[in-house]
Amino acid sequence: MSRIAARKSLGQHFLADDNILGVIERLAELDAADVVLEVGPGLGALTRRLADRVAHVHAVELDRSLEPHLAGLAARPNVSLVWGDALRLDLAALSPAAGKLVANLPYNVATPIVAESLGGLPSLELWCVMVQREVADRFFALPSTKAYGAVSVLVQLAARRTGFHPVSRSVFRPQPNVDSALVAFRRVGLPERFDDVRRVVEGAFGHRRKTLANALSLSGVATRERAVQALEAIGHDPAVRAEALQPAEFVALELALR
């Protein structure tokens, strides 16, 4: 079969090192009964590893040019190959429902896929994802740091980190121009009205250079007056910025804004 070039426009970087597959297997805590969702199987190296070890794999791929490389996997009884955009497909309708997301995520959609899956895929209990190093750092960044943002808050409200592994550029073909990392985290729960909390969080970080009250107003989440009242109700000066709040304080803020 002819070689295929990764498409940078889709954020593709194919895994080309069997050793990293062992690290993924360990951090993903794979079990024979697992149902796994994989987004971006690429040439299928990780898909094969998963299919040999778990009950079922849902592999979601956008790039139809990879079909010849995945045909053998699609013929396996415990692999469902799904063609389409993972951000547009109804992944919650997949059967059997996935309990783990294990993937070398395409760089250009890694953050939204993780953010959407927190509330949109309630069956997921564990994530083990390969992402750019700076994205991995954002997931569990501390408040008042440069990396801390909306995705940090959302991930930390839903999960706790269980593993982290820096990854050499040499494990990919083509080699990316950025560092990567594997990060694993397990669900610990989800706040009530998570979609409303997410709207507040994303609105709060939508204008990082503004005070939180102004950011919420500019984002259309609440009037400035209402935002000031809510911030005072949870014990914060209205001039505070979003990055100063702990994840749990955004839940309290959403409650105060009702």
Automatic annotation (TrEMBL):
Signal peptide: none annotated. PROSITE patterns: RRNA_A_DIMETH, SAM_RNA_A_N6_MT. GO terms for cellular component: cytosol. S-adenosyl-L-methionine binds at residues 13, 15, 40, 61, 85, 104. Coiled coil: none annotated. SMART domains: rADc. GO terms for molecular function: 16S rRNA (adenine(1518)-N(6)/adenine(1519)-N(6))-dimethyltransferase activity; RNA binding. PANTHER family: DIMETHYLADENOSINE TRANSFERASE, DIMETHYLADENOSINE TRANSFERASE-RELATED. Specifically dimethylates two adjacent adenosines (A1518 and A1519) in the loop of a conserved hairpin near the 3'-end of 16S rRNA in the 30S particle. May play a critical role in biogenesis of 30S subunits. This is Ribosomal RNA small subunit methyltransferase A. It comes from Gaiella occulta. The gene is rsmA.
